[in-house]
Amino acid sequence: MNRKVTVNDRSYDWPAQPVVVVCIDGSEPAYIEAAIADGVMPFTATMLAQGADLRAKCVVPSFTNPNNLSIVTGQPPAVHGISGNYFLDPDSGKEVMMNDPKFLRAPTIFKAFQEQGAKIAIVTAKDKLRRLLGHDLTLGAEGATCFSSEKSDQANLAENGISDVVEMVGMPVPDVYSAALSEFVFAAGVKLMERDRPDLMYLSTTDYVQHKHAPGTPGANAFYAMMDGYWAQLDAMGCILSLTADHGMNAKHDSDGAPSVIYLQDLLDGWLGAAVARVILPITDPYVVHHGALGSFATVYLPGSADAGALIDRLSALDGIEYVSRNAEACVRFELPRDRVGDLVVVSKRHVVLGTSQSGHDLSNLEVPLRSHGGISEQTVPLMVNRPVRDLTNRVLRNFDAFDVALNHIVEVQSAAQ
After folding, report:
1. Which pLDDT tens digit goes with each residue over 176-189?
2. Which among 196, 178, 182, 170 has a CA at the least distance from the CA of 231?
3. How far apart are CA 103 and CA 116, in angstroms?
4. Band of the pLDDT at 94, cuts 50, 70, 90?
5. pLDDT tens digits for 309-334?
6. What is the pLDDT of residue 77?
7. Which domains does the chain possess?
8. Is residue 196 within 8 Å of 205, Cβ to Cβ?
9. Dihedral sign computed on CA atoms, order 283, 284, 290, 292
10. What local confidence, expressed as pLDDT, does residue 302 receive?
11. What superkingdom does the record give (predicted)?
12. How far is the C-alpha of 98 from the C-alpha of 296, rounded, in Å?
């Protein structure tokens, strides 16, 4: 009888081989398509010919935290509660990072599998995700390992279930603004698979490269060639690979290379008075050098006296705005928790970003024309598997189906190492 694990109203088969789910941060499908066409991803080209090359929709806002938590819970933010990287905490009235496990409203797939005896390994590039991904896991040699590249030199048994990570991987601690931060994730994943052979592994990268390099450019191709080599190693060890992304990425600048920005707080201050409305940008996190906290999704908190309908009409008429709606309608459409979203939701078009006030964003560190994400235009992401899968054309796939596809829909499970 097939063993099953049920969590968040979804059931998953027990893995016949180790399952490795990878979240390639910021991976617009065009990056992989261009790299394969340029001949720098030979393993991936073969994998897609023999396995599954699918497309999926990510969560909007198309940011890191809500999508990673959707992938590892198998549900949208309306269920797990993480609606952005950053939000207005109604309890404190302060704008805070949503990286504390107290904000999580649903258990992870990892927790459910560990309770049934599975061995778990989680490696993320940035430490902002680590506590959320590893929430409520028993850490240690017989339980789970969960650590970040960013703070790999600080990993210890009590907080991460592992120590001496840098020595194990054989790489120095990478700079947070580097491609090496993601490479460390894969190098660690290969070492852990060789040493511990976990039942479930989750590897989550950073989008530093995608913010700087367009698909098919030398910088992008070098990064995807690196990943291709590590995926080949995991495949050779008999792992089932399920590869997706948290969001896509697009150019957000004009023909002269200047960022294309609509500063919402400045507009609302002019229309309603200074600080009467409050704009929250959920892209905000500690790592703003490559995007300046500019993305294509914002929420607006209004006073009770404001005419929301008139503001929706006025915002909708702006060149560069794709979608404006009230909280209730937007949270249904995007499957978001209503209590963690403002009175209005504003989404900009493909090549436009949203800001607060012009004085509130430091863009001096942008080394290249702005590339960013957050909107509907960054919702299409890859979903690739190194095994054939059953016909899934009758459903709209989401990136948070990555574990479901790998565990429940493989046609034939056969180790590539055999």
Report:
1. 889 999 999 999 99
2. 182
3. 25
4. confident
5. 999 999 999 999 999 999 999 999 99
6. 98
7. 4-248+379-408 (3.40.720.10), 261-372 (3.30.1360.110)
8. no
9. positive
10. 95
11. Bacteria
12. 18
Confidence label for 364 from pLDDT (cuts 50, 70 and 90): low
Chain mean pLDDT for the chain: 92
Asked if residues 400 and 71 have their Cβ atoms less than 8 Å apart, the reply is yes
Residue with tokens 């009409």: 313
**What is the structure's pLDDT at 97?**
86
pLDDT at 415 over 60: no
Backbone conformation region of residue 341, classed left if phi is above 0, alpha if psi is from -120 to 50, else beta: beta
